[in-house]
Write a structure and sequence with these properties.
Layout: H1 5-22, H2 34-54, H3 60-91, H4 98-102, H5 108-126, H6 149-152, H7 161-172, E1 181-187, H8 194-203, H9 205-210, E2 212-219, H10 224-234, H11 245-256, E3 261-268, H12 273-280, E4 290-296, H13 299-304, E5 311-312, H14 318-330, H15 337-349, H16 354-364, H17 370-377, H18 387-396, H19 400-408, E6 418-419, H20 420-429, H21 442-455, E7 460-464, E8 470-473, H22 476-485, E9 490-493, E10 506-509, H23 514-521, E11 528-531, H24 534-543, E12 554-556, E13 577-579, E14 601-603, E15 625-627, E16 649-650, E17 652-654, E18 678-683, H25 691-695, E19 706-712, H26 724-732, E20 741-745, E21 764-768, E22 787-793, E23 810-816, E24 821-825, E25 843-847, E26 854-858, E27 877-883, E28 898-904, H27 907-913, H28 922-925, H29 928-933, E29 954-958, E30 979-983, E31 1004-1008, E32 1028-1032, E33 1052-1056, E34 1076-1080, E35 1100-1104, E36 1123-1127, E37 1147-1151, E38 1165-1169, E39 1188-1192, H30 1198-1202, H31 1204-1207, E40 1213-1217, E41 1237-1241, H32 1244-1249, H33 1258-1261, E42 1266-1269, E43 1272-1273
Parallel strand pairs: 1-4, 1-5, 2-3, 3-4, 9-10, 10-11, 12-13, 13-14, 14-15, 15-16, 17-18, 18-19, 19-20, 20-21, 21-22, 22-23, 23-25, 24-26, 25-27, 27-28, 28-29, 29-30, 30-31, 31-32, 32-33, 33-34, 34-35, 35-36, 36-37, 37-38, 38-39, 39-40, 40-41, 41-42
Antiparallel strand pairs: 6-8, 7-8, 42-43
Length: 1275
């Protein structure tokens, strides 16, 4: 029988009582025999509580009895916590004050009262025939994989390939009706894998290539504004939570205009057609053939969205179910035949539901015992057919600590991302993570808890945000399970009129009002309040006092705009977790905060103007984690920091920089007794005045749990003299050999400490701004080093030997002014086969090393012969910037990511392309030990018969001074190339003329500012995969290749600033996939190609050529055109009639076309600049759909404005600029109910008449929400 939460809590209470009674001070409160009575009562209850809990669901009386017991236990925990608080308070006060303080704290009567309540429960328990049950200790086998499961465990999706291909085929279908998008609904009950299938489709390479992907998790509340904000977040837009609907819509339109998008709305419950219509009307921004995939449990939801034939997802078959179970339960290990047969039966019982299979597989792998597996197979849960019953079995087998942790997660909203590090601190604040001894580490234990739940599929989708923060989600059914198993101490409040039980300890609020304050403040013992948004938290903090909630264990005041934190914060004696991060106005913390003797976590991240921490910080005796990152105004830490012996994590230590603080500021010596882990940055080391007095006892060398260390001095300049003090200081700050990451910045010493060579576990090393250090110590013993970065030195002439760094994956050399060579000597080949070097190196960046001449300093007779040059076998990314003298380096034939040469020589590339000699395979060139050390590398295998660079995907050549021509063999090898850019190559006159049949993968080709390039080769027309072709600033280019083309995939053609280009080829009209065509500043271009265009998909056309004599007739045939821009076509005398055929046109921009005198179409946006004949546009045009009108420098504007109130009723934005004669606006402006934005600039007469309150036209425009006049927001 697994241990229950209540069973564990009773045991903890008794253990704590026993410990407290054993303390000297405990005798003050215990009456003789009181503890014995309490022990007997607890023994009676504990013996049968497991059996009682097992029967609670079937017996209402038992259920009520257990609820009463839970309340007593909770009150007992609070009482013991108060007593513990008093003990902590005595530790930080003078000894003589103990009795005086404790006389006001009467614990005895309260203990007696709790014992009496327990006696009542024990008496009731005796009336039932409960069996005594014993907890089976969880004898777990060591599972080394569990530590890394959260990082390497892929999502298991079995047997969905056929379904995936079917959905992809639906994406290819033409849209029905006139809508921009089609909706595809995947329908199935919870746990069936709808989200996993949608994700398979979404991540498919072909789908990602065809659509702009957007993923939004909707869940039960279908809030249009929230969904739109999440769409923007998925598109990479930040800080949108405060945006209104109008702002969000505009930004979405900008992001999606003309783009074919795929929007996945995951887990939709809404069946209100009005809400769907409200949402869908705003999604008409993208290109036609856009698609929306919806996952839902309900066919009715699908019907609401107009889906007649939803895709009904079925369960896995028996073979697929068994396959999935075995992958989870055995994880690739040998399958015991007996366990395999049991697993097969269990998998079949799951009825093809992947979530059930994963959870049971995760449960059963914890205990690979035949008897235990049979108990699962024969469990009574199979009598119920619902998925939740199966999941409850997995929950029932959790140890009590994990049950508490899991139930707590019910407070998070469904489908929300949960930050792992934060969650662990929440668990700790609630007392779910208990340290058995001082040698244990909170983060390690929390990681173990988290990974255990992850391995059992209670968590899923662990992801990293790029800043080292890990996040996870809970499947919505798992969330339902968490809610169902949480006790009556948890409450989810959706309505302010709800009645909240007085026993509640944890509250999750969806709404907020002042009435809720009153309700919550009357409930004794609330430990947790979760708010759905920061807005509610902000309102809460402004309306209550902390003393009303003095049982809180955790309090989040992040981003509250707090300037002064009230002293009443000190009354929260139970508080363990306090987050004050991102309060930019807060200058000081109240000294009352040091009364929080239970506080374990204090987060002050990004309190930018915080000047100081409380002087009595040593009274925060329980503090385990202090975060002061990005508190830029802090000048020191207070003395007494070293007395915080519970402190396990201090992200930043600031050396005192103010003379007046010398007596009150902490020195580095205070780190002596602190057993710090994780990472620490020691900042402002230049402020150390006396190394011996301030730092000698810092004792970093003994901090074996410290993983990452950053040492920062104020950035020294190249002219600063070498500092012996810096050398002494660096020597003293030697870390423990367990260190994994080291960054040193601004170091001013002439020599680097020798201890660097002893950090044999180092994985990441960065040294930045070391302007006086000419040499670095040997690094060849750093066998684990994966990343090495050396930046900013004007004296470092050579590097220590790097050849033995077999695990090195990333090497960055930046701004090393004096560096001439990377290695001392050219390697002597040990055979006739070519030698690999740096067998694991994937990323190599060399930037701004102007003196770098080559890779090797000493030469031998073979150096310079391409046949003898070593090569990088695993390189994925190579960037060389501003190293014009680097002409020789190891070759890189296996480079498979991208290559950038900018302000560099072309010779390294030429040498690699000319390789013809045999190359030694990586496996043959390494010893078994070396192979083992680099086994984690993602190195691509490279065949000795493969052409050099045949795997290269992206190539950028920029400002290559010695590039005059690309030889014919230059591009022959690049069969995998998808992106090619030639930029700022002034001597380049021609591209290879030979047919390039190998560039079958090329998708983007750009030639920019190659001023002497005279022609483009004919083979460009044969690039069947090409999607974007850009030719810009090629001043000598006179013509583009002609003839028959095979550019069937081309979507974008951009030709600009080619003043000698006389004509565009006729094949442009036959680009059937073209979406965007832009032609600008081609001064010799007088005519566009003539004929009938076949680019029926063209959506955007931009033409800006001074000497263009006429716009082509074929413009009128572009029925898909949405965006038309005609700029500075000074010679074009007219705009042909018949533009009514442009049925898709939404935006027209006309700029400086003085001869333009014709029609427009029904538009959504019209921008015109410098068109004096604008008045003639108003004769026969339909403006009923116009939403944005932007007019600049158009003197004849009145006629158009006079039609606004009659026809342009949908107008949302009106912008008028540089119309000095304009004095009036339409009389019925107040009739434009959709108008949201009015902007007037450089119209002096109109501006004066529109001034707020005083202008004569103000009454006409007063109702418009946003009004700007000459850059001033007046409303």
């Amino acid at each position: 029988m697994a241990e229950s939460i209540l069973y564990g809590a009773l045991g903890n209470i008794f253990a704590q009582l026993t410990w407290l009674a054993g303390q000297k001070i405990g005798s003050i409160f215990w009456q003789k025999g009181e503890l014995d009575k309490l022990q007997k009562t607890l023994d009676i209850i504990t013996a049968v509580i497991l059996d009682a809990e097992a029967k609670r669901e079937s017996n209402l009386v038992v259920k009520n009895l257990i609820s009463i017991l839970e309340d007593v236990v909770s009150d007992a925990e609070d009482l013991l916590d108060e007593f513990d608080y008093e003990l902590l308070r005595q530790k930080v006060r003078p000894r003589g004050q103990v009795r005086k303080t404790f006389q006001y704290f009467r614990m005895g009567p309260r203990v007696k009262e709790i014992r009496k309540r327990l006696d009542v429960v024990a008496t009731e328990i005796k009336t039932f025939d409960f069996n005594v049950r014993v907890v089976e200790l969880d004898k777990k086998t060591k599972n080394t994989e569990r530590e890394t499961a959260s990082k390497v465990r892929p999502e298991l999706v079995i047997g969905r390939e056929e379904e995936k291909e079917h959905i992809i085929e639906l994406l290819k279908e033409q849209n029905h009706g006139d809508g921009i998008f089609n909706v595809i609904a995947i329908v199935g009950f919870g746990g069936l894998g709808k989200t996993s299938l949608a994700r398979l489709v979404y991540n498919d390479a072909k789908v990602a290539d065809s659509f702009k992907g957007i993923w939004v998790c909707v869940s039960e509340e279908f809030d249009v504004l929230v969904i739109f904000r999440n769409i923007l977040k998925s598109l990479g837009v930040r800080n949108v939570d405060d945006w209104n609907l109008n702002e969000v819509q505009k930004q979405i339109e900008q992001k999606l205009k003309g783009k074919k998008y795929l929007l996945v709305l995951d887990d939709v419950w809404n069946d209100d057609i009005l809400k769907w219509n409200e949402f869908s009307q705003y999604m008409a921004f993208g290109a036609t053939e856009s698609k929306i995939i919806v996952t839902t449990r309900s066919i009715k939801v699908a019907a609401t969205m107009g889906v007649r034939s939803p895709y009904l997802l079925k369960g896995l078959n028996e073979e697929q179910s068994q396959d999935l179970f075995e992958k989870v339960a055995f994880e690739g290990r040998h399958i015991d035949p007996k366990l395999g047969l049991i697993g097969k039966v269990v998998a079949q019982k799951c009825k093809g539901v992947p979530l059930s299979i994963k959870c049971l597989g995760g449960l059963m792998k914890q205990k690979p015992d035949e008897k235990y597996w049979l108990s699962v197979q024969e469990n009574e849960i199979w009598d119920n057919k619902d998925v939740l019953s199966v999941l409850k079995l997995s929950y029932a087998q959790l140890p009590s600590n994990l049950k508490q942790c899991f139930a707590f997660c019910s407070l998070f909203p469904k489908d929300s991302w949960i930050r792992k590090d934060e969650l662990i601190h929440f668990w700790r604040a609630q007392g779910y993570i208990q340290l058995k001894n001082k040698n244990e580490n909170i983060q390690d234990i929390g990681d173990e808890y988290f990974n255990d739940l992850l391995s059992r599929s209670f968590f899923q989708e662990e992801e990293e945000d790029g800043y080292g923060n890990n996040f996870c989600k809970m499947h919505d059914l798992i969330h339902d399970l968490a809610v169902s198993v949480a006790s009556h101490h948890f409450h989810w409040m959706k309505d302010e009129k709800e009645e909240i039980p007085k026993e509640v300890r944890h509250v999750s609020l969806e709404n907020y009002s002042k009435e809720i304050d009153l309700i919550l403040s009357k409930i004794k013992g609330i430990r947790t309040m979760f708010f759905r948004t920061h807005i509610f938290e902000d309102l809460f903090i402004r309306n209550v006092t902390f003393s009303s909630f003095n049982y809180l264990r955790m309090l989040n005041l992040r981003s509250m705009d707090i300037d002064i934190l009230p002293d009443s914060i000190g009354e929260l004696k139970h508080l363990r977790y306090l987050d004050l991060s991102n309060n930019y106005k807060m200058k000081v913390l109240p000294n009352a905060i040091v009364k929080l003797h239970h506080l374990q976590t204090l987060l002050l991240h990004s309190c930018l103007i915080l000047k100081e921490l409380p002087r009595d910080i040593q009274q925060l005796i329980s503090l385990e984690y202090l975060n002061i990152d990005c508190c830029d105004n802090l000048t020191c830490l207070p003395k007494g920091l070293g007395e915080l012996t519970s402190l396990q994590r201090l992200d930043r230590f600031i050396v005192n920089s103010v003379e007046d603080n010398l007596s009150t500021a902490a020195t580095l010596n205070e780190l002596r007794k602190l057993d710090l882990g994780n990472s620490i940055e020691i900042d402002h080391l230049h402020n150390v005045r006396n190394v011996e007095l301030e730092c000698k006892e810092a004792n970093l060398k003994k901090k074996k749990r410290l993983q990452s260390l950053q040492l920062s001095w104020e950035s020294s300049s190249p002219t600063t003299a070498a500092s012996e003090k810096d050398e002494s200081l660096l020597n003293i700050l030697e870390p423990h050999p367990n260190l994994i990451g080291l960054r040193v910045s601004g170091y001013g010493g002439a020599r680097f400490s020798s201890w660097l060579s002893s950090l044999t576990n180092l994985v990441q090393l960065e040294i930045d701004k070391f302007h006086n250090c000419r040499d670095l110590p040997p690094l060849d013993h750093l066998s684990s080093l994966k990343s090495l970065s050396l930046k900013n030195s004007n004296v470092l002439e050579h590097l220590p030997p790097l050849d033995h760094l077999l695990s090195l994956e990333s090497l960055s050399l930046w701004w090393l002014d004096a560096l001439e060579y990377v290695a001392d000597s050219f390697p002597v080949p040990c055979s006739t086969l070519r030698e690999p070097c740096f067998p694991s190196l994937e990323n190599l960046e060399i930037r701004c090393c102007p003196s770098l001449k080559g890779w090797w300093k000493t030469k031998n007779e073979n150096q310079g012969s391409i046949a003898e040059l070593p090569y990088f076998p695993c390189l994925s990314k190579l960037e060389i910037h501003e190293c014009p003298n680097l002409t020789s380096m190891p070759l890189f034939p296996a480079l498979y990511g991208y290559l950038t040469l900018a302000d560099a020589s072309i010779r390294p590339l030429q040498q690699t392309l000319k390789m013809k000699m045999k190359m030694k395979m990586i496996e043959a060139s390494m010893t078994s030990e070396e192979a083992s050390s680099s086994s984690g590398s993602t190195c691509h295998s490279y065949s000795s018969t493969a052409l050099p660079l045949s795997n290269l995907e992206r190539l950028l050549l920029c400002n290559i001074k010695d590039l005059e021509a690309l030889p014919d063999e230059f591009l022959q090898n690049l069969a995998s190339l998808t992106f090619l850019s030639l930029t700022d190559c002034p001597k380049l006159e021609s591209l290879p003329s030979q047919k390039m049949s190998c560039l079958t993968s090329l998708q983007e080709f750009s030639v920019e500012n190659c001023r002497n390039l005279r022609a483009l080769p004919d083979w460009i027309l044969n690039l069947t995969s090409l999607k974007t072709l850009q030719i810009v600033e090629c001043f000598e280019l006179q013509h583009m290749p002609g003839g028959t083309h095979q550019l069937t995939s081309l979507k974008e053609l951009l030709v600009g600033n080619c003043p000698n280009l006389r004509a565009l080829p006729d094949w442009i009209l036959n680009l059937t996939s073209l979406k965007t065509l832009e032609i600008w500043e081609c001064l010799e271009l007088q005519h566009m190609p003539k004929g009938t265009p076949r680019f029926t998909s063209l959506e955007e056309l931009y033409v800006c050529c001074h000497n263009l004599r006429a716009l082509p007739d074929w413009i009128l045939n572009l029925t898909s055109l949405k965006d038309l821009s005609i700029c500075e076509c000074l010679q074009s005398p007219y705009f042909q009639e018949g533009m009514q055929s442009l049925t898709s046109l939404q935006r027209l921009m006309v700029v400086y076309c003085p001869n333009l005198s014709s029609s427009t179409h029904s538009l959504k946006a019209l921008l015109t600049r410098g068109c004096p004949d604008l008045s003639s546009w108003t004769m026969r045009q339909n403006y009923s759909a116009l939403e944005e009108l932007n007019v600049q420098n158009c003197p004849n504007l009145e006629d158009l404005l006079n039609r606004i109130d009659e026809e342009i009723t949908s107008l949302k934005t009106l912008k008028i600029c540089k119309c000095p004669e304009l004095q009036d606006l339409p009389e019925r402006m107040d009739g434009l109910t959709s108008l949201q934005v009015l902007s007037i600039s450089e119209c002096p007469q109109l501006s004066e008449r529109c001034e707020k309150e005083t202008g004569i036209l103000w009454p006409r425009i007063a109702r418009i929400p946003s009004i700007t006049i000459d850059g001033r927001q007046i409303q």
